[in-house]
Amino acid sequence: MPLNNLLTLELVEEIIDLVRKVYGFDFGGYSRASLKRRMVRIMILKNLSVFDLKSQIINDSDFFEEFLLEITVNVTEMFRDAGFYKAVREKVLPYLSSYPRIKVWNAGCSSGEELYSFAILLDEEKLYGRSFLYGTDINSEVLETARKGIYDLRKMKQNSENYIASGSINTLADYYVAKYDAAIINSSLKKNTLFSIHNLVSDSVFNEFQIISCRNVLIYFNVELQEKVLNLFYESLCPLGFLCLGSKEFLRDENLARKFRIIDKTENIYQKIE
Amino acid sequence: MNNLNPAISAKIKNAKILLIGGSAGGFAIIYDLLLRLPQSFPLPVLVVIHRSKKYKSVIEEQLDIKGKLRVKMAEDKERIQKGTVYFAPPDYHLLVEQDGSLSLDNSEPVHYSRPAIDATFQAAADVYKKNVIAVLLSGANEDGAEGIAYVSELNGLTIVQDPQVAEVKVMPQAAINKANVDLILNNEQIAGIMNTINKINTTIL
Lengths: 274, 205
Hints:
The complex is a heterodimer of chains A (274) and B (205).
Chain A: H1 3-6, H2 9-23, H3 32-46, H4 50-59, H5 61-71, H6 82-96, E1 102-107, H7 113-124, E2 131-137, H8 140-148, E3 150-152, H9 156-165, E4 176-179, E5 182-185, H10 187-190, E6 193-197, E7 209-214, H11 223-236, E8 237-245, H12 254-257, E9 260-264, E10 269-272
Parallel strand pairs in A: 1-2, 1-7, 2-6, 7-8
Antiparallel strand pairs in A: 3-5, 4-5, 8-10, 9-10
Helix pairs in contact in A: 2-4, 4-5, 6-7
Chain B: H1 6-14, E1 17-22, H2 27-36, E2 45-49, H3 59-66, E3 70-73, E4 84-87, E5 93-96, E6 102-105, H4 117-128, E7 132-136, H5 145-153, E8 157-161, H6 170-178, E9 183-185, H7 187-200
Parallel strand pairs in B: 1-2, 1-7, 2-4, 3-4, 7-8, 8-9
Antiparallel strand pairs in B: 5-6
Helix pairs in contact in B: 4-5, 5-6
């Protein structure tokens, strides 16, 4: 029988509870339907039964690292959603051009493709020298990939198409070196970056930012956790700072929405106004 | 549809949600079916069609204007309501949460498809259990078969378009091979079932 049919939502709750008790990671605010799909995926990848999954979580902390890697969605591309980057270039960066410091927080940065896309935009708008980009995620392994900035060369075709659609100035190949089957991001783009662990569920404000970008992360949270994280972003933004959400994510809560103005309705870009 | 057996009638009577999945060759029949649903239609409807984010789609808008029901693209954490048809957005899987809300997920494609029919059918069955009616139509890959099999296992009602009349038979045939499907119907019979749902379903949301 397919693993999907064996892993009931009750068992998903048990596993959430187990992870909380053994490792202190709280997935209680995550959307259950997505979480179940991730767990089924792990079971298929590792060839585990429900019983195996539970006992491995309890007994094997190395396995838990892998669990943590697969339980969150790490599907990303450079310049994914070209319209979004076009809007950042045209509506956000000009506004920041007079700022002496531009700090960007890419929350839930996964393997770093989005952060380097921002770095390229800032570089092309002659702002990179004044900028610093923070990438955070709950998973140390994806952060390691992000730090190295080494990607599968085959993915650069799609990335390059995205970049062109976003209103490119150069060619994407100007920003990486191809070596065998890898694309290595130029070290000049890595200079003003820092990747570190941060858990949106449990960690708090750590700096003040001009731009916070958190795209396709909130959809995996329930409404309560979404509100909590959006408030964290509000607290972490400087006055008139920009908040960038995914194409299906928006400020739902009226009290919070009132504190922002909409910069781009389709791309869900907001500016903190009070 | 006067000759439904009592088990199937009971499933129609108790259903709380209607799921429709289709791909290549399924678009026209989905359009016609939704256009004909009456305002009194007792079930919320989730629709998954394979489509690319590269092309701007106006199907929701068209159906919303021309049909009797409210038709829209599903939004994350939106509460599922009767009298509304929700389309899975391009590039996202459409899922269902236990509190009766929708959620979106942009994890890996399934059968090269995002949205995937399997993802929606499985998530809806997890929440609505036997109170699901799932309809699978024409398509060129095997997406939907696992979903139909799961709905069937949880004792929901499964309806598959007859591969003989489907424009592309791969998808309905895969479901028939994988699951013990309740009804294999031609287009006219599928429209007939929609009328039956409207007449005998007792859901009041």
